[in-house]
Amino acid sequence: MKDLQKLHYFEVPTVMKHGLGAVKYLPGELALLGVKKPLLVTDQGVVKAGLLDSVTKPLKESSINYILYDEVVFNPPLATVARGTEKYNQEGCDGLVALGGGSAMDAAKAIGVEIAHGEPILEYECAEGKKELCNRIPPLVCIPTTAGTGSEVTLWAVITDPEREYKFNCGGPLIAAHLALVDPLLHLSMPAEITAGTGMDALCHAIECYTCAYAQPQTDAVALLAIEYAGKYLRRAVAYGQDVEARYHMAMSSLLAGLSYGSESAGAVHAMTQTMGGIFPVHHGIAVGATLVPVMEYNWLGEPAKYARIALALGKPVIGMNEREAALVAVEAVRELAEDIGIPRLKELGIKETDITRLAEEAFNDPQTIGNPRDLSVEAYEQIYRRAF
Ligand SMILES: [Fe+2]
To answer: How much distance in Å is there from the Cα of 354 to the middle of ligand 1?
Structure first.
């Protein structure tokens, strides 16, 4: 821990329930939360993958009158949130169910903020001059269909402001889901590319939160097991989608990595990829996969002992090595993993090298630059971006 003078806190407002077929318990869980008419927030990807039925079937069987809002797009913009809020109010909903990846869950959290405060989410951006959240969002059940964002347990929503081409954060305990209902059977149909990208996102949350300045024993504990599970099971989940054991452990890796955020933010990878996501239509997890190794190459020097422990969590034989050698093994282990599961380079994501100057400046100004284990500058970001190409 870098700052022992500070009062650290770790709060988890979310109840976590998980298991194969867990989604069938949704009606009972909504009853426990007092929800009679939920807004079901999802996206077309979930609909096309045929996952919607798994949630609507038990709701229909229990005669729960849900309202479907299936217009969420990835990197959800302000307008997506506003339309959801309008629908919630028009239909007289009394709670939220999010079914999807980070975009659906974050959009549902943001709709919750607008309902609870009667104002646009933009007023509650985590930035100077903006308002603090003061009301709890309506009851929210998050059902993740990917294993990566951990949004089902984080205290954050990430929303895009298209006017500024900027992804901003809104967060705190008041925005967290009331229940994370994790059913790995919903992950079996996830395409290999998305499994790879979202899995790298989970691994990255754990590595960044374990090594950042905000790390504390509670977040370290969950981060290390998240890293271990990703190291053991991500290749299997990518190679054979129906591998239920791998899917279950990746779902848990994602959840544990989400918990490793605690009440704080991540580090340079997330500063880089959030700014990229505000400008280019890139998949967050895949962009994270493309930037994680170059950031680790830069960052290990700031936390060599913790990097050595990451190597151990990834199952590498580092006993007997000195700290520096073991720390570099961690970087190589993540590089191997990224290569094995086919993570692309940044240039393959449609980003041009001529964009580096702007991207580096924006990443440097992103709040997640603070807390990174090694001091950053615009020049350092430029160097990292070049390596990611
Ligand atoms: Fe992420």
So the answer is: 25
Helix axes 356-365, 378-388, angle to 10 degrees: 130
Q: What is the signed CA dihedral for 300, 350, 236, 267, rounded to 10 degrees? A: 30
Range of the domain at 103: 15-187
- Based on the fold, state whether residues 38 and 165 are members of the same structural domain: yes
pTM of the model as a whole = 0.95
**Cβ atoms within 10 Å, residue 349:** 18
CA of 183 to the centre of ligand 1 (A): 20
Closest CA to 172 of 13, 33, 16, 367: 13
Report the separation in Å between the CA atom of 120 and the middle of ligand 1, taken as the mean of its atom positions.
24
CATH code of 156's domain = 3.40.50.1970
Residue 204 to residue 111: CA distance in whole angstroms? 27
Q: Which among 187, 216, 243 is the end of a domain?
A: 187
Q: Evaluate whether residue 5 is within a structural domain.
A: no
Q: Ligand 1 centre from 256 Cα, in Å?
A: 13
pLDDT per residue rounded down to tens, the chain (389 residues): 677 788 888 999 999 999 999 999 999 999 999 999 999 999 999 999 999 999 999 999 999 999 999 999 988 999 999 999 999 999 999 999 999 999 999 999 999 999 999 999 999 998 888 999 999 999 999 999 999 999 999 999 999 999 998 889 999 999 999 999 999 999 999 999 999 999 999 999 999 999 999 999 999 999 999 999 999 999 999 999 999 999 999 999 999 999 998 878 789 999 999 888 888 888 999 999 999 999 999 999 999 999 999 999 999 999 999 999 999 999 999 999 999 999 999 889 888 889 999 999 999 999 889 999 999 999 999 999 999 98
Taking CA 384 as the corner, what is the angle to CA 381 and CA 388, rounded to the nearest 5 degrees? Answer: 135
- The residue to which tokens 């890139």 are assigned: 282
Angle, in degrees to the nearest 10, between helices 192-211 and 284-299: 40
